[in-house]
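Chapter summary example.
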Amino acid sequence: MGEKIRLTVAQAIVRWLMQQYILIDGVETQICGGGFGIFGHGNVPCLGEALYPVYQELPLYRGQNEQSMGFAAAGYAKYHLRRRFMFCTASAGPGTANLLTAAALAHANRLPMLMLCGDTFLTRLPDPVLQQLEHFGNPTLGVNDAFKAVSRYWDRITHPAQVLQSLPAALATMLDPADCGPAFIGLPQDVQGWAYDYPVAFFDRRVHRIRRQTPDPAEVAEAAALLRGAKRPVIVAGGGVQYSGAVAELTAFAEAHGIPVVETIAGRANLLADHPLNIGPLGVTGSDSANTIAGAADVVLAVGTRLQDFTTGSWTVFAPDARLIGLNAGRHDAAKHLSLPVVGDAKLGILALGQALAGHGAPADWVARAQEERAAWDAYVAENVRPGNRPNSYAQAIGVVNALCHPRDRIVTAAGGLPAEVTANWRTLGIGTVDVEFGFSCMGYEIAGGWGARIAQTEHESDQDTIVFVGDGSYLLMNSDIYSSVLTGKKLIVLVLDNGGFAVINKLQNNTGQASFNNLIKDCPTVETPFAVDFEAHARAMGAMAETVANPGELAEAFRRAKASDRTHVIVMQVDPYEGWTTQGHAWWEIGTAEVSGSEGVRAKHAEVEAGRAGQRAGV
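The structure predicted for these 620 residues follows.
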């Protein structure tokens, strides 16, 4: 029967996690980098007991908020290109419920994250217990069941032996290129402490590898034939290019065949800014250059992208008769909008397509046209980020940082107006250095995700910085990981760009014909005394260095001080909520507008939005 060892469920989980390794660049590395945890009655007596003896080998970072812990885990996984992950542990009830938003973010972005969360007692002897939701007709239903909608793998441990099946299944999901996403394991409070005689062999050291699926030769041949016949091909490079480690292969493929490349938000740093075939970011928050070339293309090779609406302009950026090729590890993504699917690993798929296209190149005049468009866009960006060209703006702040940062510094932002401004205006200095969280467009990710990224970064590039761009709205929503970064010595540079509220949604409100209402602080009818938050004082109270600057010139000096600082440094600058926006580079975006309204302006904007639908592709 083999040797056995008696462990609690919690001890078995921890022991097993510590024996799972992955081969990265020839080095065997522990897959789980540690965890983020807030203890409560649902996880401290048993899981906490199991984690304490190994806290040096499996570090547990104390969170300030369960949601931000999940964001930090996502930032960590993104940095490691999904090859490593962190676990999050929360108590039963509201602690676990706080992880729902983070799980949704990880699910939307296809990121690995393991959630080990307390659950109600399996025996039900003490029911109803503290923080339990009672469903009278279904006593098995609880808060943890809500995670079924936002997890790629979900399980509840009801017997210690289940661990033998559940843990490998959860890890297999998190490491699968097609199914990658968060895994949730509910741990009833009594079951966590139940013991079982586990096979010792279950805890043997195991080295895993990320699967690389070879595309079907028939699909490759059909895609190659389509590309050979193209007069105006374009490559859409998504985040999957980086996850596959296919940046070099995609670049070589584009160079060998003379095909222009445009980037999605997730694929924003696939090519350096000055690469001659980098035509710019695509879509609603993109560039005139990329959108123009994508709109003129007759064949679109979409690599490693799920083609969300900000990439496709709600399916208006591509010509109605353009043919799409979807190269993706996930069948669901590869076949979107009647694409010709090439289901497989991006690196292997690109290499196979390259062999099939040997000797073929796109027309030179097509590449020249694309490069002319990019040159025009570069000129626009140069003026757009120039200090003094208008009141303080996001773009100016981005330009200042871009000019002074190290090529390997990591840029993190999310939600609000900053994803659009960074996507459009940032000039990539280093491959894979930009994390714009727009898969779930989640306010609050910025600082927390930056902290998680910084934990990962200090494992490899400790001399470089993690730089966070955050608006005042997102800062107020979730800022406590400034404190986390100070406590753990994981320095961040945080730029708080204060435009007095939710200015980007105010802009959308105005652009749909409505008056400003309940977005900017000064436009909230329930606010009696509008005032500006002292973000500098607040950040100092959490132990960070902090200063407030009046303009981009002062920002540059402050940023130099932040680079020289040995701890988290927060820089605050007010920006204009009306005149500071990037006005070019936008594609049409489908939004719901009021068909009937007493406002002439609203009716006019509704007609304008609907008119943009004329260029929308039909598809599934």
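To summarize the output: The CA atoms of residues 85 and 522 lie 42 Å apart.
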